[in-house]
Write a structure and sequence with these properties.
2 copies of one chain form a homodimer. Chain A has helices at residues 7-19, 26-37, 44-54, 60-72, 113-120; strands spanning 77-79, 87-89, 95-100, 106-110, 127-140. Chain A has 146 residues and is an alpha+beta fold. Chain A folds into 2 domains: 7-79, Arc Repressor Mutant, subunit A; 93-138, Dna Ligase, domain 1. The first copy, chain A, has a 3-stranded mixed sheet, with no helix packed on it. In chain A, a hairpin with a 7-residue loop joins strand 1 and strand 2 (87-89). The longest helix of chain A is centred in the N-terminal third of the chain and has 13 residues, at 7-19. The interface between A and B is large, with 37 and 37 residues. Strand 5 of chain A pairs antiparallel with strand 5 of chain B. Chain A binds a DNA duplex (30 and 30 nucleotides) through helix 2 and helix 4.
Chain lengths: 146, 146
DNA sequence: AAGTGTAATTAGAATAATTCTAAATTAATT
DNA sequence: AATTAATTTAGAATTATTCTAATTACACTT
């Protein structure tokens, strides 16, 4: 029983793949919907485990293949922290990531586009950026509620 | 024949290690000076190869160990692009990195501290960043000189 | 100078994430 | 239905890095 994308995302999904002449296969849709429906930052292996719950025949290689095509199509983003496993993120708004060294938690940090523009201004004219990754490393303190 | 650090860096080197009660060994100094003297962004393996030219007995594990202690001591920085080998950077000024997808070139991009401060302002109060990594991915175009 | 203890180095084995390979399956097109 | 190209699959291969256990180096006592 495969996960279903809602109609809006189904269209986005199909069109994004079509642009690169890639096929909207069951496996690709399944993985895309898994990532969309649980907005965390899973690794390929976590996605593999989740996938098998509802699509037991899927292979790890396929998970890697699908993730690659989804990234290529711009439907999801890769996030890397140091040399840890690559993680995948469905948030396509301009944002950064915060990585808590103690707990391993990863949080999206929304940023105004103006920051990205201002970063670009510091590049030499012949540097053409396609992607800007901003990663914070540190710790998240407990807030006191008393 | 080991590489020699100039007196200024020798002091910085010794003091930085001492703070963490680490010893200023031949190997650590050798690797530090190699990275300082050629300001690129070498991988552990490239550093290993360079090291052996003047210190043939050094092992790859030692290179990894030394790099780890140098990073811990704040003498060098790690740079990661996607899942490529970790690279090492002697530039301790606030800066970002630009990674050219075509040629693989990696360039430092100097940034004013104000940008880092402004980034920090977008974090929730209980998020305490220790390190901010900013990576541009894209391409470097040839400039026309005519 | 010899002995002791701790830290660092070393070679090689082990690990783990990812990529590759080649065969089988699926989907789209004639 | 036949053809073609793309995709999926299982398992092997790769590769950067870490681990392990033995050796060596060094600082500090006797």
């Amino acid at each position: 029983m495969c996960m279903q994308l809602n109609p809006k995302y189904k269209t986005i999904f199909k069109e994004a793949l079509e642009i690169s002449s890639l096929k909207p296969t069951k496996q690709r849709e399944h993985i895309f919907s898994l990532i969309l429906n649980k907005k965390d930052h899973p690794t390929a292996d976590e996605i593999f485990t989740r996938s098998r719950e509802t699509m037991p025949s899927i292979s790890l290689a396929t998970v890697y293949n699908c993730l690659e095509t989804l990234v290529e199509s711009g439907l999801i983003r890769q996030v890397n922290f140091e040399r840890e496993s690559t993680r995948y993120c469905p948030n396509l708004k301009p944002h950064a990531h915060f990585h808590c060294k103690k707990t391993g938690a990863i949080c999206d940090v929304d940023l105004p586009v103006s920051i990205f523009n201002s970063l670009k201004k510091h590049l030499p004219k012949n540097f053409q950026p396609e992607q800007i990754d901003i990663n914070f490393n540190g710790s998240i303190h407990k807030t006191k509620n008393h």
